[in-house]
């Protein structure tokens, strides 16, 4: 692996770096797909089932969260009830939510399957060696694909994931995926009350990733376009 690429993927790689530096608030909506613009290309991104994207409707809300993220926050997905609360000017509790990120230096940069395999294997090795990191309890990888690696973690303290929200324990599932040559980071979050919440986070993230991967077959022609929204 080239030195520059190796540097990109160190301590627990970007997959875990986002966990340390924060994220946003999202949840499940209608299984629609929206075109999302990256540098030089467009990907079709289905909404997580039952959740709605909020970036265009509430840009200032996203801006608060973006200041805490290492990578570029592209979209938040919250449940319809939370959307109604936001429209009313309130800050609703986000019991379950999703988000989509892209690495700032990887936005629009083509990544080959071979390069991604090396990176994915390095992430897998890092995850296996980490039990805790900055208060996050990593629960290991729960799924491995040629195009993605999925893991879960818990946090027991106030974290950047809960910016604008009361501190509480979260369960999160995260995935580093390759979608038609573009590296992306997917997250599902839930207030942790028991193992059913972990099962929901893992199952929901897997289902969303599968739809995203299927909607963007490798080698699909993508028009030139500006950066996100």
Task: Report on this structure.
The strands form 2 sheets. Strands 3-4-5-10-9-8-7-6 form an 8-stranded antiparallel sheet. The protein has helices at residues 3-8, 13-21, 59-66, 80-87, 113-129, 195-215; strands spanning 33-38, 41-46, 52-53, 72-78, 96-102, 132-133, 136-145, 148-155, 170-179, 182-191. Helices cover 30% and strands 30% of the residues. It is an alpha+beta fold. Residues 1-31 and 221-229 have low confidence and may be disordered. The longest helix is centred in the C-terminal third of the chain and has 21 residues, at 195-215. The radius of gyration is 16 Å and the shape is globular. It has 6 helices and 10 strands.
Main traits of this protein?
two-stranded antiparallel ribbon; 30% helix; 6 helices; alpha+beta; 10 strands; 229 residues; disordered C terminus; eight-stranded antiparallel β-sheet; disordered N terminus
Summarize the structure.
This protein has six helices and ten strands; from the N terminus they run ααβββαβαβαβββββα. It is of the alpha+beta class and 229 residues long.
């Amino acid at each position: 692996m080239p030195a520059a690429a190796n540097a990109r993927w160190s301590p627990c790689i970007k997959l875990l770096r986002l966990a340390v530096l924060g994220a946003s608030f999202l949840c499940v909506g209608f299984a629609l797909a929206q075109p999302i613009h990256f540098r030089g290309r467009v990907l079709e991104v289905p909404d997580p089932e039952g959740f709605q994207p909020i970036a265009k409707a509430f840009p200032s809300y996203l801006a608060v969260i973006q200041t805490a993220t290492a990578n570029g926050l592209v979209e938040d997905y919250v449940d319809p009830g939370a959307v109604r609360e936001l429209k009313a000017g309130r800050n609703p509790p986000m019991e379950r939510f999703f988000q989509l990120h892209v690495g700032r230096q990887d936005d629009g940069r083509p990544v080959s399957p071979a390069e991604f395999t090396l990176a994915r294997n390095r992430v897998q090795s890092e995850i296996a060696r980490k039990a805790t990191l900055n208060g996050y309890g990593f629960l290991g990888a729960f799924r491995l694909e040629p195009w993605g690696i999925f893991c879960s973690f818990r946090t027991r303290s106030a974290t950047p994931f809960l910016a604008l929200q009361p501190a509480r324990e979260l369960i999160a599932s995260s995935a580093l995926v390759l979608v038609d040559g573009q590296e992306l980071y997917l997250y599902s979050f839930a207030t942790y009350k028991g193992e059913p919440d972990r099962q929901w986070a893992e199952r929901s993230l897997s289902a969303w990733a599968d739809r995203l991967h299927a909607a963007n077959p490798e080698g699909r022609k993508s028009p030139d376009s500006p950066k996100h929204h």
